[in-house]
What we know:
The chain is an alpha/beta fold. Helices cover 42% and strands 18% of the residues.
Amino acid sequence: MVVxxxxxxxxxxxxxxxxxxxxxxxxxxxxxxxxxxxxxSVPEAxxxxxxxxxxxxxxxxxxxxxxxxxxxxxxxxxxxxxAHKFTKPIPxxxxxxxxxxxxxxxxxxxxxxxxxxxxxxxxxAPDEKSLDFDELNTITREAHVRAGFALGVHMDNHHDExxxxxxxxxxxxxLEDPDNTDLPGCGYAxxxxxxxxxxxxxxxxxxxxxxxxxxxxxxxxxxRLVELEGHHAEPDNGALxxxxxxxxxxxxxxxxxxxxxxxxxxxxRAVEKIMNEAVEVLEARGETDWAENVxxxxxxxVTQHQRIAAVALTGREPVEIA
Length: 322
C-alpha cells in the first residue's frame, strides 16, 4: 500500500499514537511535545471527499480571488493559512527585515516555498555532483531574483500556542545558530527529513536534506520568513487544493478568508519562470549538464511534490483553474 505523508499539522502527546510519526522537536517549553505528521494511504485519503457541488463552488470563488504577483514579492508555501498578526512590535531592525507581515508581500505559492525550489535543483544535479548548501542556495536565490521574486520560507506559531516573544526568540536563535535551531511548522521540511521519504527523493538528495536544518539555514542565508497562524483546513472540514495556471497571479488568501473558504494554492507558471532562470544561472556557471536536467525536469519535480502534499492534506487530487 502506498503511503503519503501529510504536511505537519498536529501535536500528538503520545509518541506511540496511531497514525503519527515524530519529526522535528522544536527547542521550546511546551512540555516536550513533538510536532507530528499524519499519514494516510491513497485509498483512505481519496475516500474523504467533499460534495462535488461544494467543490465547484470553491473553485468559482478561487477564480475570483486572485491578485497580481508584485515584483520582488516573497515565495511562500502552498499553505492555506494567513500570515500571523503580531500583537507586539517586532523588536529589532533585523527581525523587521526578516518577517513577512502582509498578504501583499507574499508571492507565488510553491511547496516548501523557496526550499522546494532548492530541493528540486538538488534533485537535478548530475550524479557526480556533490550537493553543497551554499551553492544550491546561491543558485536558488539568483534564479528567484532574475524571475522577479525573493527567497522565502515559513514557520508557524504551533496553532496559536506560542507567544510573539517566543517567536522572536526562536527566529533570533535561528539567525545566529541555524545548525542547532529548530523552527516548527514547515510540513514540507518535515517530509524532506522523514525516513520514509514520502517525496520519493533520490538517495543522495534525501541524505543531503537530512544532514542539515534546511529552513533555519535558508533563513540565516537571507530568506524572508512568513509566520503562519491558526489551523489547516483538513479533508473533513472543507480542504481543497487548487493549481492556479493564470500567469502572473496567485490566490488572494485575504479575499478567500472573507469568502469563507480556505484553499491550498500552487502557482506552476511562477515555478516554470524560476526554473527557466535557474537554467540560465547554471549555464553561466558552466554547469551545462545540470542546466539541461533542470530544463527537463525541474518544474516537474516541484509539481510532483505539490500533488503528494495536496492529496494527503485534502483527500483528493488538486483542481486546476485556467
